[in-house]
Each structure stands twice: as C-alpha cells, then as structure tokens.
Amino acid sequence: MRKNIFAKSTFRQPMRTILLMLLIAVAAFAFVMRSTEYIIVTEKIEEIGNFYRSVGMLFPSADHNWEVSVGAEIVAASSYLGFEDRRRGALGVLQGMPNSNPEGFLPEEIEMPRFCHGYYLGKSDAFFYGELIDINREVTTVVGHRPAALYRRARAAGYDQLSNFIELTFLVDYVLLGYPEHFTMTRLEAYDGGYRERAVVTVHYHLTDDEILNSSIATPIDAMVIGQRYFLRGVHYFELAEFGTHEDFSHWDYVTVRSGARGVMFYMRPINERTSDYYPRYLTEDGIWFIPVTPEEEVDFSMQGLAGLNDELIRLRHIQSSVQLRTTRDLTAMPFMLFDDTGQLIDGRLLDKEDYLNANPVAVVNVLFAQLRNLNIGDTITVGIPPRQREAARSEGPRGFGGDFFIKGAYNEPITDVLKLEIVGMFSFSSSSWGYAPRYSTYVFIPDSVLPSDIHVSLTSLSDPLIHSRYSFVLQDPRNEDSFMLENRDILSAMGFDMHIIPGGGQEFRDSADSIIQSLAINAILFSAIMVLILALVSFLYLRQRRRDFAISRTLGCSENTAVKQLIITVSIIGFPAAFIGGIGGWFFALRESTETLLVLSDAETVATLPIYWLFVMVAIVLAVLLTMVIILGIRIARKPILVLLQDSVARRR
Q1: What is the total count of domains within the chain?
Q2: What pLDDT, on a 0 to 100 scale, did the predictor assign at position 233?
Q3: Looking at the structure, do residues 37 and 151 belong to the same domain, yes or no?
Q4: 269 and 405 in one domain?
C-alpha cells in the first residue's frame, strides 16, 4: 500500500492546517446557522399560521328558513376557498351507558315550557324497587307561590302554609331504569351475616288541589305501608335540583326541602303514564301509582293496566342513552370553538383535517359527559345509529353553535350502524354558556368521513337541509380575505345571506410572517454564498501548497487517480471534524435565534426545534461542496506534467 504523501505533508504543517480547519469551521457555522434558522422559522410559521385562518359563516334571512345551501354554492365556486365544512348530524345511542343529561330535558324543549303541578318534568324517569321506610306528610310551602289559582283559594280559606307534598323515603334494592346520579345517597345495613350498601331516595307525591285543601279526601299514599317493598316510578325534580359547579360537575349536589330531608328529589308519577316526544304526558286509564311486591319479586308487565309499559321503557332507555353526533372536517376551524366565550378545549386535542382524510374513528366529547361516565382520553365509546332520523324543533345554543336542530331517531327500530370511537379530546362550553348544560353535554363530534354516508335526516319538507349553524368555510389564505368579500358579499346579500368572517388576525400575521421569511431567505442565500467563497479559498490555498506533493507522488509511480484519491482522503480527514464542529456551533446558535424570532409572531412561548438529522445533512452539504472544489482543482493539477509541477513549486519558493 502506497503512503499518503498529502497526509504526511499536511500534518507536518500544523499551523497552516489549523488555519484551514478554522476557515472550514467558519463556513460551516455560517451555512448551518442561517439554513437552520430559515427551516425552523418557516415550519413554525406554517404551524402557527394554522391558528390564523379566515373562517366564514353564512346567516340567512327568515325567507330561507335557516337553510344556506344556495348561498353555499356561491362560496364553493370561489377560487379563494380553501375548504367547506358541511357538518352533518345524527342521533346516536350509547351502548352500555346513559348519557350525561340527568335533568332529562331536550334542547328544543327550552323555549316551550309546560308544567305539571307547577314543576318542570323532563325525561328523567326512573323505575325502581324499594322498601318504604318513612312517610312524611309535613312538607309545607309558603302561600304565594305558584300555582296561583290554588294559592288564591288557600288565602281565601285563611291558610298561610300548605302541605302540598307527601314525602316518601325508600331503600332501593334494584333500579330497572334511571340515571345513576339519582341513586347516589346510600346507607349500610346488615345482610346475610355481613353488610350491604343500598341507595336511599326520596319520592314526593304531589297532592291535588282538593287533596291539599281537604285533608279528609283519601290519597293513593294512604294505602302504602312502611316496611313493604314496592315497584314505583319517579321523575327527577328539575326546578328543585341544584347541579354541581362548572368546574366539578361530577359531584351531584342534593336539594333540601323544608322538612330537612336530603337526597335526589323524585316527583312520583303513575307507573302506566306515557311520555311523548315533548312535554305532555298521557294517562289513558286509572293511574297505577305503585305495585306492592314481595322481596326478590319482579312485576309482570302483562298485568292489567301495564300493557304499554315495555314500550315506554324502551322509549325512555333510548332517550336516556341518546347523544347528538355532529360531524366536521376540521373542528379546529369550527366557529363555536373560535369564540372565547363559547367552546373551549379542556383536555386532549380537537379533530383536524387528518382525522377526516384518514377516516379516524375518534371523537371529542363534552367534559361533563366524560366526568359523569368516568371516561378518559384514550377510552372508547360505542354508539349505535338508528336507521330513521328526523330533526326536531330548532334549539338555541352558544354563539357560533346556536340555531342547531336537535335530531331524534326511531326508538323502536333496530340499530343498523355501530361506531366504536376513541376519545381524543374533551370540550366544554364556557362559563357564559353554562346555562346550556347539561342538555348540551350530549354533543359528540366525529370526523365527517366516519359517519356512514347513507345516514339522512329529514326536516319538515326539506331533505338533508344545510342549516346555517352546520356550515362554515375556510379561505386558502387570510391575505385573500378582502378580495373574497369583494367578490361575493354583494351577490350573497342580494340573495338574502349575510356573510361574516370571524376576526382572527390572519392577515396581520401573514404580513409579519412574510417579511420575516423574506429576510431569512436573503440571509440564507447570502451566507450560503459566503460559505462557497470561503471553501473556494480553502481549496485554492490548500492545493497551492500541495503542488510539490503531486509531483513527488507522481514521481514515486502514483497514477493521476491515485493521487487525487489520496488528496480527497486527506481533505476529508481535516474537513469533517472542522465542518462538524462549526456546524454544531451554528446549530445551537440558530436554535436560540429562532426562538427569539418566533416570540415576535406568537403570544405563547414557542421552543425552536428541528430533527437532529438536519445537522448531518447540512454538514454533509458543506463537505460535498469542499470536496467537489478540491476534486475539480486536484484533477487539473494532477494532469500537469511532473516537471511543470516541480518548476511551479520551485518558482513559489523563490
């Protein structure tokens, strides 16, 4: 193996070699520093820019009946459009768990209150078996409250207080149907040589006006006996319930009545009463208020007067397990998530375009639902979808989400589609919208590509309507916002649509970002040119010193190719450590500079990062440029005659 003349000569001149290595390090430092800064800042600007999108909405006049499909076609034809989010809706039925609406009200019922003996009644019915342990007939109300007609009669009769309830306390041993939140009060009792925990509930029988004013009139409760086990029905008191705070809804507060009793309050209703899609309740025969049963006995629903009870249980179980599925192409761009006083992410992440494009079976659920059902990020819920669906009356909702139509499905038909959804995020309505929970806690957001395409929902005479609360759009570039508005605003206004772009500061951000990117690009090009010039200088100086080595190598019988190979090896030995050390310095300097640059664009502190392989790529580029120059100049020198090389070497020494 021939000795490397170039390596020997190079290492015999340490000062010159160190100087060349310093020049290589400076070139690598300059190139890596500006290139790294440019790559980091441009990537982060693109990432930050996703939060500064121009999101638009359409608001129809009353003539369009909340429908915006005609206006949406105008928006869809614009060249400035990035994408539309035509959100679909469907009713889903949770498999194996109830929803998070223990008050039992549906959103569309908010605007049409109806009372039953002066109290709101939702779909919070519970059917249970329990032993009667106490009867309290001294539950009083101060005269002056509703219902007004009764209290006018009471004042005329000289009453200042009325006993309008009979309060019954039960030890529950089996719940046939009902929300678990309604059976949280418990007590321990001796059982089979040990102890068992049983729920304690309070049920109120509301006396009729005549029963209140005339104590001699018999009531159904007169036939009940303490110590007897009964099957009965209760409806949770909405008006008397005090729900938990916004921060901790998982705790169910209990109400206190004048008698001092504590516990979830049930309003006693006939077992054979039928509910409806709205408030009205129907009783076609004599009311069966309770059924005495022996221990462990269950009621035979085929008995006289209970013919429709099975169907009623199916209806209520369907309602108490129902959730409102809403699809989206990108939840991060959904209007109600962009307003500070409406939607907010509590945990996990929101759905994005990747979830839609990949049809990921994921969901974002309300935090109240997650807390009540002990669900965490990563857990899975199973939701069935009934085949026939329809939209009920329009309901109110938070800003950017209001005007939505609540969807109902056929409760007595089999489930046709089942979705297994992984929870990736939890959202909440802000404190200003707290009045919409928990009835709005049943909303579950999923990617539009996950909901089967054959799910269609009807609304009166419209087929699959595009309601304004379910439509929004995102422009390709916030800088085109003014041009887009100029192109479409007058046309849409003439058609009866008001177009609104949600303020997001996108155009200001892009203007600032563009100037920064332009400055960084100029710096990257300039420092790349400096790197090339420095490496050209290094190549020239080094090869100028190695002409004599070429002559000696050739004289010893080395071919031109062998001499060039030895030269490349020598340059690599001194070039790689110099380029790597300079590159590392430029890398960390660029990370610090990039972090400071990004602070100008983002309120939140952004840490500048870049995969480490980029460092090796950029160092490799520096070495490639250096070696390319050395090879080109080295080949030219190697091809010269030996005598010419020796003469040049002697001439330089003189």
Answers
A1: 3
A2: 94
A3: no
A4: no
| Residue 60 near residue 497, CB atoms below 8 Å | yes
Give the CA dihedral 67, 70, 73, 75, nearest 10 degrees.
Answer: -70
Last residue of a domain, one of 301, 320, 339: 320
Residue 85 to residue 448: CA distance in whole angstroms: 9
246 and 307 part of one domain: yes
| CA atoms within a 13 Å half-sphere pointing along the CA-CB vector of 163 | 10
Check residue 285 and give its pLDDT. 66
Q: Let me know if 423 is exposed, middle or buried by CB neighbors in 10 A (0-12, 13-18, 19+).
A: buried
Q: Whole-angstrom Cα distance, residue 337 to residue 352?
A: 12
Looking at residue 640, its pLDDT comes to: 72
* Long-range pairs of 647-652 with CB within 8 A, sequence gap ≥ 24: 648/547, 649/547, 649/548, 649/551, 652/544, 652/547
Is 129 within 8 Å of 202 (Cβ atoms)? Answer: no
For residue 341, what pLDDT is reported? Answer: 53
- Residue 127 and residue 199: Cα distance in Å, rounded? 13
Out of 470, 501, 532, pick the residue that ends a domain.
501
Token pair in block for residue 188: 């321990």
Question: Is residue 104, in this structure, part of any structural domain at all?
Answer: no
The answer to the question of residue 167 being in a domain is yes
- Answer whether residue 103 is part of any domain: no
Distance CA 633, CA 544 (A): 10
Query: pTM for the full model?
Result: 0.71
Q: What does DSSP assign to residue 67?
A: B
Using alpha carbons, list the distances in angstroms from residue 95 to 322, 385, 417, 532. Answer: 9, 10, 12, 67
Low-confidence ranges of the chain (pLDDT < 50): 1, 108-120, 142-148, 150, 239-264, 399-400, 432-436, 460-462
Q: What residues make up the domain containing 176?
A: 113-320
